[in-house]
Amino acid sequence: MKAMKKEPSEKPLLSKSTAPLLEEVHRRLAPVWPDAHPLLHYHNCFELLIAVILSAQTTDEQVNAVTGELFTRFPTAKKLAEADIAEVERIIHPVGFFHVKARHIIDTAKALEAKFGGDIPPTLEAMLELPGVGRKTANLVASACHEVPGIIVDTHVLRVLVRLGVCPKKDAALAESIVRANLSQEKHTQFSYSVNRHGKFTCTARNPACTPLGRGSLGHGCPLDDLCPKIGVKR
Ligand code: SF4
């Protein structure tokens, strides 16, 4: 049975307190982390889509360690669609869940060939129909390849939004809906990347640098200290 892909909430989520908080978070983090691009290595949109599918439940660094060989061996959707799954599994083994991920990327390549001439789909909705593609992947690829605003809620972004009290629980679809309702569209992509970097390097899972002074893994302190209720952070 096909897995359900959770849709963002349809409830009205515009909030008098959340909108100015998100604007302020964006205003403070965007200059610290201005690079609004994936940390995954890729040369075209096909490679980006495959790399993002592989990045579920692992790090960008792990994915980058395998995609060089993968894309040399299978440089197009057509080549990957015709791949021997055992060879794909061998190459992507280090990223974890390699049986299901190998099946997903081969099936995705087949769908790209059959429906889109080997290109990535033109819309977010069409991308969501591909195997292994959820809202994070679709938003990321659509924003990077079609230059449409994308709210990319990965594990880092979700953790930061929960700690800030923006999202009441670890629910990526809810977080996406709240950001969509409370932050102007042209800021969505930059917001996603700067909050991602903030979560990856400063507001880390185990040891968040909750101080304006430098203590994060890249020497950044937290510029949100005075705004943040630090929900769930052990002190
Ligand atoms: S104050 Fe701490 S919990 Fe809040 S955003 Fe900064 S690092 Fe994260």
Could you report the average pLDDT, rounded to the nearest whole number?
91
User: Class of the largest domain, according to the CATH hierarchy?
Assistant: Mainly Alpha
The largest β sheet comes out as: none
Could you name the ranges where pLDDT drops below 50 across 5 or more consecutive residues?
A: none
User: Which value, in Å, is the CA radius of gyration?
Assistant: 18 Å
**CATH architecture annotation name of the largest domain:** Orthogonal Bundle
* Sequence of secondary-structure elements: HHHHHHHHHHH
What's the tally of helices?
Answer: 11
State the secondary-structure class. mainly alpha
> What helical percentage do the residues reach?
40-55%
Q: Please report which band the strand proportion falls in: under 5%, 5-15%, 15-25%, 25-35%, 35-45% or over 45%.
A: under 5%
Polypeptide structure, described:
- By secondary structure, the protein is mainly alpha-helical.
- It folds into two domains: 18-37 and 151-227, Endonuclease Iii, domain 2 (Orthogonal Bundle); 45-146, Hypothetical protein, domain 2 (Endonuclease III, domain 1, Orthogonal Bundle).
- The chain is 51% helix and 0% strand.
- The chain is built from eleven helices and no strands.
- Helix 1 crosses helix 11, helix 2 crosses helix 3 (60-73) and helix 9 crosses helix 11.
- The mean pLDDT is 91.
- Residues 160, 163-164, 202-203, 208-210, 222, 224-225, 228, 230, 233 line the site of iron/sulfur cluster.
- Iron/sulfur cluster binds at residues 160, 163-164, 202-203, 208-210, 222, 224-225, 228, 230, 233.
